């Protein structure tokens, strides 16, 4: 770790501690093997900003994408033959989408986070990297990405921009310019609006942070939404899966809980949701488990 710290730009103390915590993090072991055809990975690319804070790269998906066009996302995608592991998938996708080199010195892996279940039955593993090359210039693939920008990683722990170090944007001045459908994103939620006077919705429309509890499977799941400060330029908020992943990364890195409740009342853990989908689901994940001969893994796991 000391060698990594030596080549990074000057860091604030809390940023240095964040890097160290992420580098030490090991997710709990999986309860069983996962089918490769339903596995995916995303790259959380961190870099050190001018003031020593940690920022994360985010992209706007190209308008011609078949799914989630124009959404704000992390670089990532499904496993492909030739990917050695989740890190390999994340590195390949980051290279293909935003031109980040597949170079273990210039792009250092810090850790893998716990996997996430998506609405289309993929198991997504976030892989956290830190960019050490100060001269790195991303190269966007216009077929997949139309824009690249960043936000402070600490953004995903707070409810107001004034609490976020290095957040340079005034959210309130942009409320009237939010484009139609700006908070529509990762399924399964339908188009939504946030209002404090509704029982299952939190945060007024246009506020930096908002949430909505949605029905998913046999229970509720809380969907979080963060404005980027670039909505007047047509950039969508960070929402759904991407928001959940970055909340987790920030919580692990900074060693604190967010100011807001992460889960809906009675919400099952991600591990339990994945296991339920594998054991009792009738969709693509369950079919992949059966076709790849992994059912026994999960039968044994359930008995332990």
UniProtKB/TrEMBL annotation:
Protein's name according to its UniProt entry: Nudix hydrolase domain-containing protein
GO biological process: coenzyme A catabolic process
Pfam family, one: NUDIX
Domain of life: Eukaryota
Lineage, uppermost ranks: Eukaryota, Fungi, Dikarya, Basidiomycota, Agaricomycotina
Domain Nudix hydrolase: 37-177
Biological source species: Cryptococcus wingfieldii CBS 7118
InterPro entries: CoAse (IPR045121), NUDIX_hydrolase-like_dom_sf (IPR015797), NUDIX_hydrolase_dom (IPR000086)
Gene3D superfamilies (alphabetical): Nucleoside Triphosphate Pyrophosphohydrolase
Molecular function terms, GO-annotated: coenzyme A diphosphatase activity
